[in-house]
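Backbones bend. Our protein:
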Amino acid sequence: MYKIKSLEITNFKSYKSSHVIPFDSHFTCIIGPNGSGKSNILDAMVFVMTNKPYNIKNATVKLVLQDNNEIMTFTRYINNSGKNSYFVNNKKTVFKEFINNFIIYQSHTDIPISQIIEQVSGSINYKQEHDVLLSKYNDLMIKLKIEGEKRKQYLNILKENKKYEEEHTKNVKMVERKKDIENILFYYKINNLLDRYIFIQDADKILENKSLLAKKMLLSRSIKELRLQIDQKQNVIYKIDKDLSVKPNIIIPNFENLEKEYFRLLNNEECCKVEVDDDVKELLKEKEELVTKHQMMLDKFNTIQEKYLNLESELNKINNEILLSKNIKARTIKLYNMKSKIKSLPGVIGFVNDLIKCTNEKYEVAIKAILSAYESTVVVEDIDSAFKCIEYCKEHRLGRISCIVKCISKQTYVQKNLDKDLVSPLLVIDCPDNLRNVIENLFGNISITNKAYPVDYSVDVCTIDGVIVRSKGRIVKFNKINIHDSSLERRMEIIDTMNSIKKQIDSNSTVEIIQNKLKKLDEEIETRKIKKKEVLLPETKVFGDLFKINGYKNYNDYLTRNSKYYTEEQNAKHNLLKEKKDKILNYLELDTKKLDELQKEYDSIIINEFLEDNISEKEDIAEEIKDLFFIEKNEVVDVNFLVQKRQHKNDANLTDINNNELLTNFPFTSENISILRTELEEINKMLNNTCLIKNTTVLDFNLQKYDSLKKETLETKLNFNIIKNKRASLFTEYLTKLNEIISNLYSKISGGSCNIIAENSDEPFSGVKYYVMVPNKKYKEYDVLSGGEQMISRLVFMYALSKMSNKGFLLLDEVDSNLDNFNVNRLVDFIKSEDLQVVMVSLKVGVYKECNKMIGVYKRNGISNLLHYAF
């Protein structure tokens, strides 16, 4: 039997970081104020034992179970994206089998008891098969009922067929006469359709003649348009030939004059280019030197700036440490700010605490205790300096300050005779020589002793531990350790170094000078480039038109090529134009051929458009004729067997008839046809009043279907009863055992009795009633009980289920909230008497004082924390 050994929680709901919660093997109680996170521990167990979704991220819960020496671990992890991972014994797996558990919450809606018993007893395994067979059986019964009704109708039809056999033989002759009339009418309709078909053929010939005339008109128009296009293109070719013969005579003489002018300008250009290139090279060298120098200065500047930023961050940390410390006072911060500002005033020598240092570590605490009275005392040169300091503190609201003037304190101090246990503080301190008189006046009236609490001395005494005993009996205790001295000293050092770095940065103007020089050099290089472009301007003005004609960038590109290239290029262009001309003529020939082909296609399309309506009409007529034949044939087939023989003869006669014979030898006129139609209508009325024998082959088939359906229904009912009996036997066996255990447990915990009874003995899983008789009360159903009575009954039911299913632990969440003290004591005695592990959240003293292990939950800054205590 597995029991909970421990629970490991990481970032689950109100629990941050990791917590390991151990549990007792019998009775563990979780206590704490409301909202501290007690129920979250049980939620964590439900989280790891089920796949229930939770609105949490990056959380892990690990449940450790133990059965004697065997240990199993179940872990569920949910990442930031909400994806779950399951681990059994630290191996990743798909979590399919969950540990059975029941948790009772306040105002929780109960699951139906029958559903719980079905799941625990195993009868639910037959539920799906039971429901499938039941639905199948119901469907088959409905079908069987429908087929039974049809069977009755089929049997009635068989009886009716016997009655109408004699009457049917009388109507056969009438049916034969009907078919003869219908055949005559059919041939008359075919004759009319053939006349219409001949008329349409004549109309088609007339339309063909019209389409040929239209085609001729369209071709003549398109030929005229093509001839006009050919004449226009020939005129364009003639103009191009004239231009090719005239242009070489105009371009060549102008080209020679321009070439001479270009050589003259080229010499000037080369001279200017050499000068500009030399200037640019010198400027580039100077720029490179300045760039390297500028880079070095920048590196140096970056290191200084980085050092400054580091010091600034360190200063912020020190300030935060000083401010966050619990023992720091506002006066201490104010005092250090005052010291940093007063020191810079003229005439200020320094604060008394900064001017004196202890030379013996043994008396260091005593010296600090004596100096604590002079924290805001400053030594100045003269009285004017003292007044300036006081006014400065008042203006800037730095606090109160005491001043000692150096020139006034010139009297020498006379050493008094001291006892053996007393030591003068002047012997264990070091100070500047010019301030010796001032310090002696301050320390002259107090001595240091090794005794813990001196009371026999008539002078002011300070112990080594920092306790000052005045001669009048007043005692002042000094705080030995000042954790802020080192931080404040370091802060002052950082401020001084930062100020010196600022001065260096402000004084360092060489970087700006180099940057200005670089800008000037860039400007000079740009001006040189502009001058170079200005030198090339005359060339572009003189030869600009020539460059555009020949496609050159400048005349240097032209000189690299041979002068003969121009004439060859002109000849090539002339040849190209000739080739274009030949191609155009070839294209014209091809276009004329294509035009002829297109014209032919166009004519065929026009003819098809004219004939389309007539052809569709012809097809409709042909289809109508086929339909008539098909309808006539179907009607003949559907008549009785005697009529079918007669129809075969008629079909044979129809195939022998020629269309021409129908047109010439049809013996009936329109008057005869109208007489035949009236006769046909009278025959149809007489036949409608009679009943024909129906086909019995369909009846035989339906009767077989009914028999097979009846057989299948009986088999399904047999299988359904087998599954139903298996399911019911499992359910009832489990219910009887559970009833015995529940009645024993309820009488044990309350002295009353209870029973669980199935509502329907044939189908026990359809519903279960839970009846309870509380001591000195009547039998009542569970739903009518009070809150405390319901809680006891529900707890007994859960204990019974745990015993039946052999599960090792039970989780309860404030199940004692509706119980009085008497019932609470009974509940505790019941839990202790049963061999079942219980983890319970409770706020009742009578519960958690009897548990074996207690887990305390409390909240601090919105985060749940834990305390463990084992009895």
Observations:
- The chain has a mean pLDDT of 73.
- DSSP finds 20 helices and 24 strands in the chain.
- The two ends are 24 Å apart (CA to CA).
